[in-house]
Structure formats: structure tokens, C-alpha cells
Amino acid sequence: MKLSDYERKSLINFIVLYVGSSVLLLSVIAFLIYQNEERTSTQMMQMKMEHFADMQGEEIIKSDMKKAKDYMLPKTSPYKVALYNNKNKLLCGDDLEDIDFKEGKYKKGGDWFLVSKAAEGHLDVEYIVVKKIGFEKTVNRLKQNVILVWLGAVIFISLMAYWLGRIFLKPVREKIETIDEFIKDSTHELSTPITALMLSVDALSKKTPSKALTRIKLSSRQIADIYHDLTFLLQLDKSEKVDENINMKELLLQRVEYFTPLAEQKRIGFEVKLEEMNCFMERTASVRLIDNILSNAIKYNYKDKKIYISLKNKTLSVRDEGRGMSKEELKQIFERYMRIEKNRGGFGIGLDIVKQVTQAYKIQIQIESKPNEGTLFTLIFP
Predict the structure, then answer these.
(1) From CA 334, how far away is CA 319, in angstroms rounded?
(2) CA distance 191 to 184
(3) Residue 75 carries which DSSP code?
(4) Beta strands in the chain (DSSP E)
(5) Quick one: pLDDT at residue 10?
(6) Of 236, 180, 226, 274, which is closest to residue 359 (Cα–Cα)?
(7) From CA 122, how far away is CA 6, in angstroms rounded?
(8) According to the model, what pLDDT value does residue 293 have?
(9) In degrees, to the nearest 5, what angle opens at C-alpha 345 toward C-alphas 362 and 9?
(10) Dihedral sign of CA atoms 186, 187, 192, 194 in order
(11) Rounded to an integer, what distance in angstroms lies between the CA atom of residue 181 and that of residue 172?
């Protein structure tokens, strides 16, 4: 199922929200599990060290009771062990450096130490020191295991989010396709009567020109523009683009000529300054791009004002002297079906088309506008 831009954005937003909240919850759980496991492992290790030290203390006491002169430590042990007298002198075992005899249990350099007095001074043994080497590696392995499980859970949740998102979008997609088919059939049926209407009005205008026919002609052109916008949107994601070399100066002059009757009806004039410039893009897309910007400039301009069109250094600017827009309106103008003024007609799809065309051809678009001062559209071609 091929997704449209809006469906793709909806799916991405759903995945980000679903995965983000799940990952946050998983992270908290993983951190708590890690803390608990680290604390449990440390306590178990300390208990085993204490038990080992107590066992050695018992054996030393037994040896002393049997009148033995000294005590032999076990040959094999998971720990390093040393016996010290009350003057901190090594009696037997491993030579453990820098022992803190005041501490009971402490950590140093990734190793754990236990200082025990379980021998109770028998055989002159005041301290039994037990050292556990490499416990930090155990903690690191635990940390790695928790991270691996966390990553696995994140991947699983991401796949689930994508799968669920596609399932949720399926009925919506079916409804959209139904609506698209309806609009496609409707626009197809409108093609012939719109063409016939425009040809008939043109023929009548040449024979018997009148204001009424002029208004009908302009209205038929507006209907045709809406028709072209609808067909362009329907074919945007479905048709293969055939780009060609377009002379933007010639195209702009053609479109200005096309919109001149509509502009004259509002007593709006054009001031055009164009340099030669070619660009490589689909002709239909370039026409819809220019037409929608010019149409908006005429629609929102005041009477007896001008529209200034400039083409220079791969930069096209279209400025009107109309109502302008506030900062809040500027943030919404590229949203589909968004109309600044409901009473001016249209479907609110013109600037959505402008946005999609500029994105497709990597054309930078800049808008400057102030209420009651006008709006400036700037297109910077790559």
C-alpha cells in the first residue's frame, strides 16, 4: 500500500508517539531492574564473602584449640585472602596492599574488600581480609544484558507500532481512495462541459462583447483553474513526472496575459521585470505553481493596486499591495483546505500545491507579509 504524504506523516507521528512513550516506560523499568539486580548481586557477593571469612575464622579458632601453631588457608578459593595481626602485619596469605583496616566492606578500583575479625585474635590473627577481584566485570555484564534486552524490546515495539499503524490506516486509506475515485470521476465528467463553456464564451465574446459575457468568461476561467488544481492533486502521487526545459520568462508572460482580464476586473495592474531563465521541471507543475501564486495575489490584492513580478538571478518574486497576513495566518497558509477568508471562494488547495511543487523540485520559498501592507512571495530556484 503506497502512502500519501499526509498518511506518511500520520504514520510517523503515531510511531513516534507510540514508540516514544513505550521507550520511556521501558527505560524506567530497565533502569529499576538494573538497579535492583546490581544491588541484589552486590548483597549476595558480600554475604558470600562474609560467610567465607566466618568459615576461615572458625577454622582458625579450631586450630588454636587444637594447639596448632598456625593455620593454613585453603589452596583454592574464589577470593584472595590474607591474615593480619593486631599490628597490621601480614601473617599468611596474599600480600594485599593498602588495606583500610577500619572499614568492614568497601570498594576500591573495581574490587571489593572485606575486613573481618572473625578469628577473634586466635593464633595472633586479628584481621581476615577477603578480596573479590573483577566484580565490576559482573556488573558490566549485567548492564550489557539489560541494554540488549532493552534494545530488543524497542525494536519489537517499533515493528509492532509500524504494523498497528498500517492496520489503523487501512480503512482510512480505503475511504480516501473512494473519495479520490469520486473526485476523479467528477473532474473527468466536468472536463468536456468546461471546455465547451470556455470555447462558447470566447466565440460569443468576439461576436457580441458585453460585460455579462466578460463576467461569464472570467467565472469559467476560475472554474477551469479549480478543475486543473483538482486534477493535478489527484495525479500528483500517481503519475510519472516528465520534466522538460522551461523558459520561465515566456511562461510568466503567458500566465500574466491569462490572468490580466481577471486582474482588470478589480482594476489591478501588473508591473513585470523579467530576465531570461530556464529551469528543468514538469510543465503542468510549473504552470500550477505560477498560477496559484498569481491567483492569490489577485484575490487578496486591493482595487486600484498593482502586482509586482520580478525574475532575476534564479529568483522569482511576486508582491501585491493587498490585505496581507498576520503571523498566525502565515503559519497555516500551506495547510490543505486552509482559507484565509471564507467568503473569497476556493477550496484552500492552491498553496498546498505550491508547497508540494517547491518541495519536489527543491525550490526555496520565502513569504513576507504584513496586515494591510501586502504579501511578497519569493521563489529561489536551484
Answers:
(1) 18
(2) 11
(3) S
(4) 80-84, 90-93, 105-108, 111-116, 127-132, 244-247, 269-274, 278-281, 306-312, 315-320, 364-370, 374-380
(5) 78
(6) 236
(7) 82
(8) 92
(9) 40
(10) positive
(11) 14
**In the chain, domain spans:** 5-138, 241-380
- Site of grid cell 488544481: 229
Which SS3 state, helix, strand or coil, does residue 303 take? coil
Q: Please give the average pLDDT of every successive group of 10 residues along the chain, which has 382 residues.
A: 68 85 90 90 91 91 84 84 90 85 84 90 90 84 90 90 83 73 67 70 71 73 74 67 88 90 88 92 89 89 92 93 85 70 60 87 92 91 90
DSSP β-bridge partners for residue 364: 380
At 349, list the grid cell: 488547495
Residue-level pLDDT at 148 = 92
User: What are the residues facing 245 on neighbouring strands?
Assistant: 280
State the cell numbers at 361.
Answer: 523540485
pLDDT at 48: 92
| Cβ–Cβ under 8 Å, residues 142 and 34 | yes
Contact present, 285 and 360 (Cβ < 8 Å)? yes
CATH classification code of 241-380: 3.30.565.10
pLDDT on residue 11: 79
